[in-house]
Amino acid sequence: MNELIEFFSSNLELIYILILAIFIGVELIKNVPSVLHTPLMSGANALSGVVIVGALLVMLQSKPDDYLALGLGFVAVVLGVLNVVGGFAVTDRMLQMFKKKK
Predict the structure, then answer these.
(1) Which of 41, 62, 84, 96 gives 69 a disulfide partner, CB atoms 3.0 to 4.6 angstroms apart?
(2) Strand ranges, E, within 7-64
(3) Furthest-apart CA pair in the chain: how many Å?
(4) Contact, 69 vs 58, CB < 8 A?
(5) Residue 99 in contact with residue 84, Cβ under 8 Å?
(6) Is-contact 73 59, C-beta < 8 A?
């Protein structure tokens, strides 16, 4: 528990930036028109792929007894994979709308 408190106290500025980025991201996504939402979702797939690769690299570089890094890396991989799969599903549905019906 002391390691977690020490981590938060030493990285307080980064945590503030993360919280600010979350609020800005929510406001940006909320104000995007529906017409642009699906193409932006396709672009988010590439970013999620980068998150997955970064999380795997963090997990590979961490020590076996560093449970915080391994746990956060695992959560990042799972959420990144879910985002990629969901993004491709939404993109596929969008592309189905533009196909000619038989």
Answers:
(1) 62
(2) none
(3) 64
(4) yes
(5) no
(6) yes
Gap between the Cα atoms of 21 and 43, Å rounded: 18
Residues 6+ apart with CB under 8 A from 87: 41, 42, 44, 45, 48
Question: Whose CA is closest to 44, among 29, 54, 30, 59?
Answer: 29
Report the number of secondary-structure helices (H) and strands (E) in the chain: 4, 0
- Look up residue 7 and give its amino acid: F
pLDDT by residue (tens digit) across 19-75?
999 999 888 878 877 667 666 766 777 778 888 898 899 889 989 998 988 998 899
Q: Rounded CA gap, 77 and 84, in Å?
A: 10
CA atoms of 52 and 74, how far apart (whole Å)? 9
Amino acid at residue number 79: L
- pTM for the full predicted model: 0.57
Q: Which two tokens stand for residue 31?
A: 């104000």
User: From CA 14, how far away is CA 52, in angstroms rounded?
Assistant: 20
Residues in the chain: 102
